Amino acid sequence: MTALTRRKWLQRALGAVGGMTLTACDRIAQSEHVNSALDWAEGLNHRVQRVLLGRKALAREYSEKDISREFRANGTINPDTEEYNALAKSQFADWKLIVGGLVERPLQLSLEELRGMPSRSQITRHDCVEGWSCIGKWKGAQLSGVLARAGLKPAAKFIAFYCADTLELSLDGTGQYYETIDLIDAMHPQTLLAYEMNDKPLDIPHGAPLRLRLERQLGYKMAKYVMRIEAIEHFDKLFRGKGGYWEDRGYQWYAGI
Amino acid sequence: MSATASGQQPTSGTERALSDGRVALYRHPLTVRLTHWVNALCLLVLLLSGLQILNAHPALYWGEASPFDHPFLSFGSGDAPAFPGWITLPGYQDLASGRRWHFFFAWLFVLNGLLYLGYALLSGRVSRVLAPDREQLRHIGRSLIDHLRLRFPHGEEARRYNVLQKLSYLGVVFGVLPLMLLTGLTMSPGMDARLHFLTELFGGRQSARTLHFFTASALVLFFVIHIVAVIAAGPLNETRSMLTGWFVIKPGRRS
C-alpha cells in the first residue's frame, strides 16, 4: 500500500466511524422521548426564574447614550400582504387593534386611542435567541391598562397575540406569527404594546404599527405587527399547540434564558 | 491503615500491599468517581451544544450590546456553519435543539457540582487532599520542570496530588467551573432583572457571552492537559483509579 492510498483508507475509515457516531447522535437528538425528557429543564428554568424574579422585578433600563446605532430587525421585516400594505399606505390611520376572547368588554382601539392610554417609556436591551443584543428606546401602552379597560374574565389565563406576518408558507395556515404569555408577564409594568421606537413611530422592519415588549424574555416572544389580542384559557388548540410560532418549531415557551 | 515506610502520613482511606511489593491506595471515594464522570459527560454535551448555539450568531462582542460591524471576534464566513457538524450537537444546524440539550445538561452539571462540593467540603477533602502545603508550594518550580518533561512521581510522592495537580483542580473546581455557570446565567434576560450585579461584574451581557466562550476554551485546554498527564503518568493506573477508586504506587522508587 502506498502512503497515499493508506492515507485515503485511513481518512475513509475515520469518516465512516465519525459518520456512524454522528448518525447515532442525531438519531438520539431527534427522538421524541429524549426531547420530552430534555424539556424538564425548561420547566425548571421557568419555575426557578418565577421564584427568583417574582412579579415585579424590572429589566435593567439604560440611558440615551447606550442606544444601539444599528438595531437589527429579525424574522419578518415586512409582512407585505395586500391588507397590510394598504394599512401601511395610510400610516395605519385605518388600523384598529382588536381585543377579544375572555374579556367583559371587547375593544377596537385605534393608534390614537392607544396613545391616549396609560403609557410607559423605557430604554432596554433586546436579547435575541441567536445570541446578539441591541439597546433601544420604546414607548407604548402598558398591556395591563389595555386589559383593565377590557376587563379579564376569571377563566382567562393567557394572552395571545396574532400578527400580520406569515413566516412560513404552509397549507394549514400554521406559518402565521403568534405568541402567548401568561398573566404574570401581561401585568408586568414593562410589558408594553409599543408604538414608538427611538422617539419615532415604530417602523415596518421593527413591527409597525404595534409590537409587544416583554423585557424579561428573549426577542422571539415580542411579537411584531400585532393585529389582535385575545384572552384565553389554554393555548393548546392554537396553531400547533405550543403557544407561539417559534415554540411550535421547538423553542421554549418560557424564554427567560 | 498503616504509617508509610518514609514516615509520611497516609493521605486518606485504606491501602493494601500487593504481592509484587507495590501498594494499592483507595484514592477516589465513590462520590468523587461518580461526580467526575457525570461532570465529564455534562461538559462534553455542554461544549457541543454550546457550539451549536454559537453557530446561530458566530460573533462575539464586548459590552452590553452587539455593534455588528465591530465584533470582538467572529468565526467562519459564507454560508457554511462556523463550527462543523462533528463538533456540534445535533450534527445539523438546529438552535432550538442545541438550547434544549444545553439547559438540560447545565442543570445536571449544577446539581452534580453541588453534590461534589457538598461532599468535598463536608468530608474535609478540600483541605486534606486538594490544598497544597507550604512545602509543596516552595517546590513549585521544580514540579513545573518535571511536568514539562512529562516526569511524574510513581513512588511515595505519588501518595498525594502534586502541587500543580492541586492548584489546577482547585482552580477548575472553584474558579473556572463557577465562572462558566455565572457567565451563562448573566446572558439570561430573566436573571439579569435580578442579578444585574453579575452583568456589571462581567462588563455587560455581550462581554459575559464572550467570557463564557473563553472560559469554555480554558476548560478544553484543561481537558487536553489532563488527558496528556493521564497518558504520561500511566493511563491504566489512572483510569482504574477513577473507575474503581484503587491507585497503585511503587513505594521503592523515589520518582
Can you describe this structure?
The complex is a heterodimer of chains A (257) and B (255). Chain A is α+β, with helices and mostly antiparallel strands and 257 residues long. Chain A has one domain: Sulfite Oxidase, Chain A, domain 2 (Alpha-Beta Complex). Chain A contains 7 helices and 10 strands. Chain A has helices spanning 3-30, 32-38, 40-53, 82-89, 111-115, 143-150, 183-186, and strands at 97-101, 107-109, 119-127, 133-142, 158-166, 176-182, 192-197, 200-201, 211-213, 226-232. In chain A, the strands form 2 sheets. A 5-stranded mixed beta sheet of chain A has the order 2-1-10-5-6. In chain A, strands 3, 4, 7, 8 and 9 form a 5-stranded antiparallel beta sheet that branches. In chain A, β3 and β4 form a beta hairpin. In chain B, strands 1-2-5 form a 3-stranded antiparallel beta sheet. Chain B has a two-stranded antiparallel sheet with strand order 3-4. Chain B is 58% helix and 6% strand. Chain B has a single domain (29-82, 94-249), classed as Fumarate Reductase Cytochrome B subunit. Residues 1-12 of chain B have low confidence and may be disordered. At the A-B interface, α1, α2, α3 and β4 of A face α2, α7 and α9 of B.
Structure classification of chain B: mainly alpha
Give the termini distance of chain B in whole angstroms.
23 Å
At the first level of CATH, what is the class of chain B? Mainly Alpha
Q: Which segments of chain A are poorly predicted (pLDDT under 50) over 5 or more consecutive residues? A: none
As a percent range, the share of strand residues of chain A is 15-25%
What are the key terms here?
heterodimer, A: 257 residues, alpha+beta, Sulfite Oxidase, Chain A, domain 2, globular, B: 255 residues, mainly alpha, Fumarate Reductase Cytochrome B subunit, 3-stranded antiparallel sheet, two-stranded antiparallel sheet, 10 helices, disordered N terminus
